[in-house]
Design brief:
Family: Belongs to the Psb27 family.
Membrane topology: Lipid-anchor
Number of helices: 5
Largest sheet: none
Radius of gyration: 20 Å
Shape: globular
Strand content: under 5%
Protein name: Photosystem II lipoprotein Psb27
Structural class: mainly alpha
Keywords: Lipoprotein, Membrane, Palmitate, Signal, Thylakoid
Distance between the termini: 66 Å
Number of strands: 0
Subunit structure: Monomer. Forms a complex with a monomeric, partially assembled PSII. This is probably the complex in which D1 is assembled and/or replaced.
């Protein structure tokens, strides 16, 4: 009887508990450091990424800055990509282009420095996205 109760009651509660833990921990990480205000977050993320890409590869703070940039990109994308109300904004599409390019470089070429052509393009796109977000576009 005890084995029957353990098998039929304990397993579902354990599975439910694990699902809740994973779900809640995933939600807390996705928007870490973001306010939920699109304009403020876009400006903040753009400034942080501009600072990160300006760091030389041999700077001791580079690796930590890159890790924080990756987390910020993931949080920004997770928060704003599902929102249909901002999909038509020029600032959103420009920002998405920039963060996708930077994330792709970090994923594919993690130990290599950012190429000058990519750095230049990212600087232009991030500044343009920031200005467009402040303007409301």
């Amino acid at each position: 009887m005890v084995a029957f109760l353990r098998r039929n009651l304990l397993r579902p509660f354990l599975a439910l508990g694990l699902c809740l833990c994973l779900g809640l921990s995933g939600c807390s990480q996705a928007t870490a450091g973001l306010s939920g205000n699109y304009v403020d977050d876009t400006v903040s993320v753009a400034q942080t990424l501009l600072t990160t890409i300006a760091l030389p590869q041999d700077d001791p703070a580079h690796q930590e800055a890159e890790l924080q940039a990756r987390q910020l990109i993931n949080g920004y994308t997770a928060l704003y990509r599902p929102r249909q109300d901002i999909h038509g904004l020029a600032s959103f599409t420009t920002m998405q282009t920039a963060v996708n390019s930077l994330a792709a470089h970090y994923a594919g070429y993690a130990n290599r420095p950012l190429p000058d052509a990519l750095r230049s393009r990212l600087e232009k796109e991030l500044k343009k996205a920031e200005a467009s977000a402040v303007r409301g576009a």
